[in-house]
Specification:
By secondary structure, the chain is mainly alpha-helical. The protein has 2 domains: about 210 residues, Rossmann fold, CATH 3.40.50.620; about 90 residues, Tyrosyl-Transfer RNA Synthetase (Orthogonal Bundle), CATH 1.10.240. The relative contact order is 0.15. Helix content is about 55%, strand content about 5%. The chain has 12 helices and 5 strands. Bound molecules: adenosine monophosphate (AMP) and tryptophan (TRP).
């Protein structure tokens, strides 16, 4: 059976981008058709300035939301990264396979490091090595497929390169994984700045729809989305990114194709209204289940404890064999 692994960072509240780009497929397809693991990757949240209590809170919230979105512990494994030591154990070994040049070429590193320096802050070493930890997350489980949004494809490519290099140097150990992406909404854009990704850790609140936003907040954000001054509704991501983003969101919510949908609209107002309602309806059941699960913290804790135990059992043999292959004496 195909092994699937993916994760989400607890660096902010989960967004519509996370849901449409990744989580919804985990729920609808991956957990049903594959042997899948989904992880709240809390170690990754420490790569930027962070407040310990907030990371803890967001980790619990992300796990609760994954279950609310429909991940079923009977069908897949849901756990928290730091509960399974094998990730950090393998990450060090992969640091001995990766090069510093490779790390410095990662687009996300370059962007985040530049932003941090602009603010006059320092860049944590872990921000540079983060893609190696991500590679370890994936490789520890013999993963075949990694369902992610577009922003993560470069990191999965790096993971492939590292797996191939390790296998060539030290003998066949790792499965070489591939990224899978959704048909539409692989990159949901910020509603206020439709040329940048809707990212949960960004500061621009009005352009980001959070999964736990109240219906009226969702409506307000979508109705105020930045579009352009043209009159017709046309799907053209290059020239008309704001409208294209709305059409993609609408298509992702209700099915259909953004270009076909564009033909049914004469005005931006009508498009925004339908998109807002589609998003509200998409989020409604998730929010209801989230509320119910918040009343059962012991259940969520048990799911995470069982998930970590299962994950540990899967990762340990793989990481042990990587340790042996690279020349470490078995304990
Ligand atoms: P992150 O929020 O960076 O932990 O991302 C978790 C998952 O959501 C990854 O698979 C990302 O590629 C995906 N994702 C995050 N933001 C977006 C977005 N704006 N559009 C599509 N996918 C996204
Ligand atoms: N880097 C990913 C992101 O920012 C999160 C992540 C960490 C991940 N480890 C992973 C995704 C392993 C897929 C597989 O979205």
């Amino acid at each position: 059976m195909t092994r699937v692994f993916s994760g989400v960072k607890p660096t902010g509240h989960l967004t519509l981008g996370n849901y449409l780009g990744a989580i919804r497929r985990w729920v609808d397809v991956d957990q049903r058709q594959s042997d899948a693991l989904f992880c709240v990757v809390d170690l990754h949240a420490l790569t930027v300035d962070h407040d310990p209590a907030r990371v803890r809170r967001l980790t619990r919230q992300a796990a609760t939301l994954l279950l609310a979105a429909g991940l079923d512990p009977e069908l897949c494994t849901v756990f928290v990264q730091s509960h399974v030591d094998e990730h950090a154990r393998l990450s060090y070994v992969m640091e001995c396979v990766a090069t510093d040049g490779e790390m410095r070429r990662m687009v996300q590193y370059k962007e985040k490091a530049a932003r941090e320096r602009e603010r006059g802050g320092s860049v944590r070493l872990s921000l540079l090595t983060y893609p190696v930890l991500m590679a370890a997350d994936i490789l520890a489980y013999g993963t075949d497929e990694v369902p992610v949004g577009d922003d993560q494809t470069q990191h999965v490519e790096l993971t492939r390169d590292l797996a191939v290099r390790f296998n060539q140097r030290y003998g066949h150990t790792f499965v070489v994984p591939r990224a899978t992406r959704p048909g539409v909404a692989a990159r949901v854009m910020n509603l206020q700045e439709p040329t940048s990704k809707m990212g949960k850790s960004d500061d621009s609140g009005p352009g980001i729809v959070y999964l736990l936003d109240e219906p009226d907040a969702v409506r307000k954000k979508v109705m105020r989305a930045v579009t352009d001054s043209a009159a017709e509704v046309v799907y053209d991501p290059q020239e008309r990114p704001g409208v294209a983003n709305l059409l993609e969101i609408l298509a992702a919510c209700g099915g259909g194709d953004p270009e076909d949908l564009s033909r049914g609209y004469q005005s931006y107002g009508a498009l925004k209204k339908d998109t807002a309602e589609a998003v509200v309806e998409l989020l409604r059941p998730v929010q209801e289940r989230h509320k119910a699960l918040c009343a059962e913290p012991a259940y969520v804790e048990r799911v995470l404890r069982d998930g970590a135990e299962k994950a540990r059992g899967m990762a340990k043999p793989m990481v042990d064999s990587a340790y042996r292959a690279i020349g470490l004496l078995p304990a």
